[in-house]
Write a structure and sequence with these properties.
Number of helices: 12
Oligomer: single chain
Order of helices and strands: HHHHHHEEEEEEEEHHHHHH
Number of strands: 8
Shape: globular
Strand content: 5-15%
Helix content: 40-55%
Number of domains: 3
Amino acid sequence: MSENTSEAVVAAVRELLPVLRDRAQETEDRRALSAESVKSLAETDFFRLLQPARYGGYEADPVTFLTAVRLIAGACGSTGWVSSVIGVHNWQLALFPAQAQEDVWGQDTGTRMSSSYAPTGKVKAVDGGYRLSGRWSFSSGCDHATWVLLGGIVPGGEDGQPADFRTFLLPLGDYAVEDVWNTVGLRGTGSNDILVEDAFVPTYRSLSFNDTARCSCPGQQENPAPLYRVPYGSLFSYAITTPIIGMAYGAYEAHVSYLHDRVRASYVGVKAAEDPFAQVRVAEAAAEVDSAWLALENNMRELMGYTASGERIPMRVRLRVRRDQVRGTGQAIRAVDRLFENSGGRALAVGTPIQRFWRDAHAGRVHAINDPERALVMFGRGEFGLPITDAML
């Protein structure tokens, strides 16, 4: 698909933003995206941006996809979060064996998947595949999906050491959704639990994290585009950070608009916009979030430059991407905090955008991929020439 076509999707997303912004409180109140919001996003073709062309997708540049995510999250944090994680699943499915892709998209190329990667359930290797049982949590947008991607550890030998960490693909019917999502942040994501009772998953509907770490996956034979040679740990991690950056931009726009006409109670008759301290805080917040986004754009374009030329991506680049990703999350959080503390007591009112963005951003921050020490230790080990075994690169 042409770049102009994928950019048209971003333009359609922009036109939808006022509607998503108006629905933000409703989304939070219902603790899930509405069917109308998901349908509207699907009609823009947003979910097809990272989907293979042979299944009606655009195979868009990751920056195009992440730009759309940032815009959506700037209108509604929960909608941006769900859109990003469900949207990036289409990229991940393209890495699976061809039959798995056909199972999901063969009858309906608009089929959506949710996920839960923490290996909290039990996996047993059997003839022809695996049997899964247990509970997986935090499956964002699962009410709007008919397949799920679940992380699981395949046991090894008698020593009990894991033989492999894999992602398993299951259809609705092999799992159930339990409504447990009642949180202080990202309330509208519907990130409920997935329950599985002795479901069989054929081998071809699983993908090893060892393969994703090597950037060598079965699906690349059918989907040879450079997009599908980007490291999983790079694109998936930014699919989590980008909504938080978007929330920071949304908080920034809401804050500047609010402060423009606000009069500070402690300074009679003085507009908050004329307060030099308020101006400094706004400048600091803008610098933090702009820096996070510019690093993302630079890193993604460099990664795509390597994959487009067929070159192997240097480990130092992959390590830097993860370093900048966790720092980008931190920068976005600092920006939101700065704006929130500059907003005054009226920002505490239920229904105001600034407090919702503040809660949503902090909720997104606790995702495991945003653990700063884990990523920074990897970068430091790389700088000192020490071995790195983490697959999330």
